[in-house]
Specification:
Blueprint (H helix, E strand, L loop, with lengths): L1 H6 L5 H22 L7 H9 L7 H14 L3
């Protein structure tokens, strides 16, 4: 589970949803085409995450944090 958390850093809720749907599709294809009927495993989730483009970047987060510093009311 720690690997899933680490690999999904900077994911928005929409990114997480897409990765979950991608994982489900990958498992479905495995069952359908390879006849491997194991349940979804961490490796499947990590592959789904790897095939998902992050919406956020470190620069975007840094810019947002700077905006908070610059424009926050005290």
């Amino acid at each position: 589970m720690t690997a899933v958390v680490a690999q999904s850093a900077l994911f928005t809720p929409a990114d997480i949803e897409f990765a979950a749907r991608r994982t489900a599709q990958l498992v479905f294809e495995r069952v359908l085409f390879e006849r491997q009927e194991e349940l979804a495993a961490t490796a499947d989730v990590l592959r789904g995450i790897a095939e998902t483009r992050r919406t956020l970047t470190q620069q975007m987060v840094a810019d947002f944090e700077q905006d908070i510093t610059d424009f926050a009311r005290v």
